Description:
The chain is an alpha+beta fold. It contains two helices and six strands.
Amino acid sequence: MRPLVLKEVGRFLEDYGYEAILRQDTGVGLGREAERRMGPGKPDVSLHFRIAAAICGMGEIGYSNIFLSPQFGPHQKLAFILTNAPTAA
């Protein structure tokens, strides 16, 4: 379900003329996806999911270096969309 929703939101943003770089935490490399070129004209992207999620205010990093959210504790998968679309304030 998660990859489908991620792709649909990414397509929606791109249909309105914004860039959308889709990333999901696959669990490989302790929560990091390897750097790779996303396509012609797009930047190299590397994202550390648990640190990004903590910075975004979704939860915190526990003593065991695992991302913990208030609702699910250590049991969740993370996905991010990096975009140049404006956010509502």
